[in-house]
Amino acid sequence: MAEIVRVTRQRFAIGWLNRTSLLYRQKGRGGGSGAYRGARWHHPREVLDFFSGLRVRRLAVYSAIFLPSGNRMARTMERVLPHTLPWGGLVVVSGETA
Question: I want to staple 62 with a disulfide (CB 3.0 to 4.6 A). Which of 75, 83, 86, 89 is the partner?
Answer without folding.
Answer: 83
